[in-house]
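The following record pairs a protein chain with its ligand, zinc ion.
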Amino acid sequence: MTIELLPRFQAVGSDLYSRGMVSVHGGNLSVRQGEKVIITRSGSKLGYLTDTDLIETGVSQDDDNTRLASSELAVHRAIYKQALFQAIVHCHPVHAVALSFLRRIIHPEDEAGKIFIPEVPVIGFGKEPAPGGFADEIADALKTHAVVIVHRHGSFARGMTLEEAYVITELLEISSRVLCVVKNLKTGAI
Ligand SMILES: [Zn+2]
């Protein structure tokens, strides 16, 4: 089952890494299949995933594989328990993370961002981020927003497919870059 998913995990992971949205061991991806979640292994390299990097465990139940899963498993599980989404992408897009230092909500101003992700909540603003932290807050916000960003940490995007969650993540980073560039232009920094 997981082997059929491998090319899709590899394509998204490779794109995230090559575009600088994760460091070599950063980020995690998952897909839900009924009561099972297939999630990247703790410490796996998203840019170079192999079949042993996909860990299948329960959405609600622990099993022998649970300890191998990404340290963000608790967040992925909380999201799947609250809604019928089928895929999650978590990564560390630089410009979006930078904006999360300063803003409680990111409002994209470019056309695509305004249409598809008009409001991106910053979760845990002013608090210390930790792996698996803010799981319920993230899951709650993702019921009504396609993507959120954890303060000083990274984004969580959900979708019905891995590719959809990736596209939303990319939109967030492009919109965030535009916001940063426009702000610099206004202040004369460039
Ligand atoms: Zn992270």
